[in-house]
Amino acid sequence: MFEYSSVIHIHSNYSDGSGEIPEIARYASEVGVDIVLMTDHNTLRPLKDGLEGWYGQTLVLIGTEINDQKNHNHYLAFGIKNTFDNRLTAAEYVRKVKEEGGIGFIAHPFEKRNHMKEHPPYPWTDWSTDDYDGIEIWNHMSEWMEGLTEQNKYQRFVHPLRTVERPNEESIKLWDKKAMERRVVGIGGVDAHAYKQNMFGFFEVEIFPYKVLFKSVRTNIFTNESLIKDNSKLEYNKKLVYDALKEGRCYVTNFYHADARGFRFFAEADGKVFQMGETIPEEISNIRLRVNLPEIVTEIKLIKNGEYIDSLISDEATWTITNKGVYRVEVFFDGKPWIYSNHIRFI
After folding, report:
1. What is the DSSP letter of 232?
2. What is the pLDDT of residue 112?
3. Which of 254, 274, 305 is the last residue of a domain?
């Protein structure tokens, strides 16, 4: 498999972001991002304008963030060619994304905030649908704004990376619960806009530049084949990336702590290897779950059905399991959440 570091949930000047897509790609390349997944609100104009493709060493793919008339139920959709009328219900546009052969992820499902009236929360409220592929379990800007108070606002503005600590607990609980029913992929989102604020009527200051936010929450993916840095192979590359995301061959990491590339979580049984996102057939026995870290000795926790069951401090781990369940791992860096794997299901 081939590992790539991606940033998901990015806005440009095609909606409420401030940057142009070539500029965003350049910033991403400067901090080692391999893939940028754009999600401007309710538009695929950048796709129609031919902005999808390679920019140096960075691949930009164009998706969209869909919402309903109340500006709730935000849905990150990729692999589609048409946008939808926001008079549709969330269940309807989630189904349409699936029918078009696309993939989709519920964005910031339990968002709560009340410190900035001009930026209200946008939670997910329509749980009647089960057609989504995954959930955004960690959203940088949601966490940053939810933790904002009058007392800490200056610190959080000055240190936008240091103040982002962990995924939303309700999102993690829902993710684990749903994974016991079917594969539900967990991704991390930046929700980058690079807002510009006028200061004293004289000049504009960019709040949270793209380049800064690209050093935070990332989703590292594993493709079955190497990406080809040739825009004539764009459809080939898109399929590799979207298949990896749909199948759960990815993990969420906070790049601010350390570069997680080299992390592996997989299962070995009866001479076969099962990757994140896969289900081990029930007739298989003698299963070993294995973890490898990129030359960093730290705490690794094993989670089963959403509950902690074991941990150790090392740069690798092996557990033998006999009981059915849904397994994932969490890795901590200096005691802080660093890596969240996707599940391996033994059901």
Report:
1. G
2. 87
3. 254
Contacts of residue 313, Cβ cutoff 8 Å, sequence gap at least 6? 297, 298, 299, 300
Query: Which tokens is 263 given?
Result: 């992390």
Residue 90 lies in a domain: yes
Tell me if 330 is assigned to some domain. Answer: yes
Structural domain containing residue 230: 2-254
Tokens encoding 134? 């995954």
3-state secondary structure of 21: helix
- Residues 10 and 37 sit within 8 Å (Cβ to Cβ): yes
pLDDT in tens, 102-137: 999 999 999 987 666 667 889 999 999 999 999 999
pLDDT at residue 161 in the model: 85
pLDDT at 199: 46
> Is residue 67 domain-shared with residue 115, that is, in the same domain?
yes
Helix (H, G, I), strand (E, B), or coil: what is residue 236?
helix
* Same-domain status, 209 and 84: yes
- Tell me how far apart the alpha carbons of residues 260 and 250 are, in angstroms, rounded to a whole number: 12
Round to whole Å and give the CA distance between 329 and 218. 17
Residue 258 exposure: Cα atoms within 13 Å on the Cβ side: 19
* DSSP assignments along 248-294, one per residue: T-EEEEETTT---TT-EEEEEETTEEEETT-EE-TT--SEEEEEE-S
What CATH number does residue 169 fall under? 3.20.20.140
- Total count of domains within the chain: 2
Q: Is the domain of 58 the same as that of 176?
A: yes
Please check whether residues 159 and 10 belong to one and the same domain. Answer: yes
Q: What is the pLDDT of residues 258-275, one digit of tens each?
A: 999 999 999 999 999 999
Looking from the CA of 251 toward its CB, the CA atoms found within 13 Å total 28
Residue 259, domain member (yes or no): no
Sign of the C-alpha dihedral computed for residues 123, 126, 127 and 133 taken in this order:
negative
Q: Which residues, in sequence order, are CB contacts of 242 under 8 Å at separation 6+?
A: 78, 79, 103
pLDDT score for 237: 98
CATH of the domain at 304: 2.60.40
Those residues of the chain that have pLDDT short of 50 are: 199-200
